[in-house]
Write a structure and sequence with these properties.
Number of helices: 6
Number of strands: 0
Strand content: under 5%
Radius of gyration: 17 Å
Shape: globular
Distance between the termini: 70 Å
């Protein structure tokens, strides 16, 4: 019988976490270079880690769904503050019983439908 200790499981989890972080960092840099570079040295990693934490709180566990959530957060903000129908989107992402992949796909496709794939930019008046 093979016995895996708690410490071994923790290390395996850390390896998966680092692999996912690196994958998301590459995706962020490749797909959104204009958003990636101004964040400084630790900014992108902090953003990726916040995305992973948010995904875990919303029961979004599949790597491809976390990857799509990262895209949502880059395009619409981590609180989806730039998204049309933000309350609907956040309430769907927070739904406890729907599968994570379904939630992210529904929100992403609806928001992209509203914006027709264009990025929303926050406009601030010059003082």
């Amino acid at each position: 019988m093979l016995v895996i200790r708690d410490e071994q499981l923790r290390i395996l989890g850390l390896e998966r976490q680092h692999r996912l972080e690196n994958q998301l960092l590459r995706q962020f840099a490749e797909e959104y270079p204009e958003d990636y570079s101004p964040q400084g040295e630790s900014g992108p990693l902090d953003f990726v880690r916040e995305t992973i934490r948010s995904a875990a709180m919303r029961n979004i566990t599949a790597e491809h769904s976390i990857s799509d959530l990262l895209r949502l957060y880059v395009e619409f903000g981590t609180g989806l503050e730039l998204a049309p129908h933000r309350q609907w989107a956040n309430s769907l992402l927070d739904h406890a019983k729907l599968p994570g992949a379904l939630k992210v796909n529904l929100v992403r496709s609806r928001l992209l439908g509203f914006t027709q794939g264009r990025r929303i930019i926050l406009h601030r008046e010059e003082e």
